[in-house]
Design brief:
This protein is an all-alpha fold and about 60 residues long. Helices cover about 95% and strands about 0% of the residues. It has one helix at about 1-59. The longest helix is centred in the middle third of the chain and has 57 residues, at about 1-59. It is rod-shaped, with a radius of gyration of 26 Å. The N and C termini lie far apart (about 85 Å).
């Protein structure tokens, strides 16, 4: 019976480690994702400006 309890403890410790690792990985991914979002917004704004300038030149 004690072996079963030790097994559960090791599984619980492993799960805790995996949760911490998952949290760290999410933090690593969050910053580039936020940066990509900002770049996409900027490129959309840039495209609008470029199209407006093109229309003005054509007219």
């Amino acid at each position: 019976m004690l072996e079963g309890l030790r097994g559960n403890k090791s599984i619980a410790d492993e799960m805790k480690d995996l949760r911490l690792e998952t949290h760290d990985l999410k933090e690593c991914v969050a910053e580039p994702n936020a940066e990509n979002r900002l770049l996409k917004q900027a490129s959309r704004e840039w495209a609008k400006t470029t199209n407006e300038v093109f229309r003005i030149r054509v007219a």
